[in-house]
Amino acid sequence: MTPLTNNALPMRKTIPFPGRVDRSTSDRSILFLIDQLTEMGGAERMMFELANRLKKLDYTVSIITFRENPSPEAYTYGAEVIVLPIRSCLSWKAIGVARKIRQIIREKNIAIAQTYFESSDLFGAVVCRLSGVRKICSSRRDMGLLRTRKHMLLYKLCAPLYSRVFAVSKRVAGWHQQRDAIVPQKMEVIYNGVYLATYNHRIDRDQVRKAFGIPLDVPVVTTIANINPWKGLDVFLETAAIVHNEYPEIAFVIAGDKTDLEHYRVLQNRVQELGLSSNVFFLGRVSDVPSLLMSSDIFTLLSRTEGFPNVVIEAMAARVPVIATDVGGTSEVVTDGVTGYLVPCEDHLTAAATVLSLLSFPPRGDRLTNTARALVEQQFSIETMVRRHIEVYDALLSA
User: Fold this and answer.
1) CATH architecture of 26-193+381-398
2) Is the pLDDT of residue 4 over 90?
3) pLDDT for 269-293, tens place per residue?
4) For the structural domain made of 196-379, what CATH number should be given?
5) Which of 229, 311, 329, 339 is the most exposed, fewest CB within 10 Å of its CB?
6) Within 10 A of 132 (CB to CB), how many other CB atoms are there?
7) Considering only CA atoms, which of 280, 284, 328 is closest in space to residue 302?
């Protein structure tokens, strides 16, 4: 199986969107600006999913990224990716990049710009406004995880530039309204979505596990997260050590890009110290996330911070019991004891006890997964996510 992280999907038939407004081609030209595509996380994949669905609805979509060497995955979606490298928004090179953005905006008659992350939200939005784009949307994916004091000030100063601010959860929306002085009428909560059809097929669990190098006849507890300190993978290992005492053959699977090599080495050392070398499997980037989830018995996400975790709704779509920390917007999809289990942040003891309770009585997890899948179908599909964006775009273009 190819070791590439990707939830990229082939071109799919799109259902019609009621209430669509007939517009000229120039009115349907959208520019996405995103800081980087070198590491493909949830935000990047959701942006590409949105771009692809918009193209099927006769929107013209262009993507600008400010970091060199995008991941090969970024080119598998079929969207136009324009790389304009910039290290500092205050450098002389930034002036040249700004001119190129202005040229692209004029050539493509951009009607709406949508920005992702700090450089795009601030530098990109200012350049777009000065280049004549009057409808600018900002997509907020977390609660200021990487912000500096400079960012805090600039976000407040730039707040009037945005026609709408999209937040991936109510908690994220509340944080940005308070910190960035966003007026409530500009804020839109649009949850991420999952393409349900990829979780409707049957799999051969043994074959999938063989492909990933996972033992066949043992319980498998999986987490999917890029390797960095805020994903709580150290907490996952401490949880694993407790569970291992009662289930010595159990497998703990970590799938995700090694974005922080130093932290990866720390985790590897901890695996050795805990005596889990035969039980913990680092898969790296994984291309077939649905099959990995459907071959797992329990999914956990023990992050220290989240905006809205895509992988949680993916696990719910795969009908895998979910255990997650109550951070960010996670509680807006995981209702404790109903669609999954919420545990306190940093609490490996409670996480381990919850894993053990599911392993000791599997029917408890079956009840959860049926309810969880129904919730995803109702509220967290890709179609719902795209429809909500288009409703906002149409409203802006009609104003």
Assistant:
1) 3-Layer(aba) Sandwich (3.40)
2) no
3) 999 999 999 999 999 999 899 999 9
4) 3.40.50.2000
5) 229
6) 11
7) 328
